[in-house]
Amino acid sequence: MHSELFQIGPFTLRMYGLCMALGFLLAWRAMVYLRKKTNQPYEDVATLLTWVMISSILGARLAYVMLNWTAEFSQDPMAIIRIDQGGLVYYGGLIGAMVFYVGYTLYYKLNFFDIGDVTATVLPLGQFFGRLGCFMHGCCYGQQTDAWCGVCFPKGSPAWGEQLKQGLIKHTAPEALAVIPTQLIESFATLILFVVLFRLYPRHYKDRGFVGGCYLMGYATLRFLIEFLRGDAQRGTLAGLSTSQTISILIFIGGIACLVWSKTKGKNK
What we know:
The protein has two domains: 4-143 and 180-264, no CATH class; 144-179, no CATH class. Helix content is 62%, strand content 5%. The protein contains nine helices and four strands, in the order ββααααααααββα. It has a two-stranded antiparallel sheet. Strands 3-4 form a two-stranded antiparallel ribbon.
């Protein structure tokens, strides 16, 4: 775990922020490539993705603050702006981005899926880097394990702090007990999803909603399964499922709806 790369005066470059920047940059380049390949406008892609990133970060942070207000922010509200220290909920970011897209498409009188499908195609690439950042920061970790793949995060990490709180380790422990590296599992799963969608998009970009639906169903499935392995606290439960699993079910249903709409009304002549 290397959360901080270096510090110059008051400025600290964190691995989490660097991974987010890399994810945004490469997703932008992939989006430009796909738009060019399919002879679609690409000049405003950078501006569009910038606003998507801002809206998704705001949504992800708002969701995290709402879920952890009592534990982390009620006594220190100024900590809300410290996103450089982690603390983002992906589904909150997805909702924030979708709200922006609805407003954007209504304002410019565009079809939602014309830009939504290509964004859904490159989004897993950004998630790949984002989860690598989570791993380097130590958040979003898995359950304790004795398996060969277990990772021991160092003293001061979120896993170490939670295990200390639970009395599983002492404050003198140099590292946490081994946990499943769910960040890496999700990271490489989203990379595979990106490759699949990247190959699908040029063949189905005229089928509005098809690629977007595939993304929603694909990510919802892998996130639902990975949640069984997560070990960080405050997961939330509803009928035995975590909050993210409940949202995953709704997202999966939304993906099915996108595919049905694509099949019946989404063809772009």
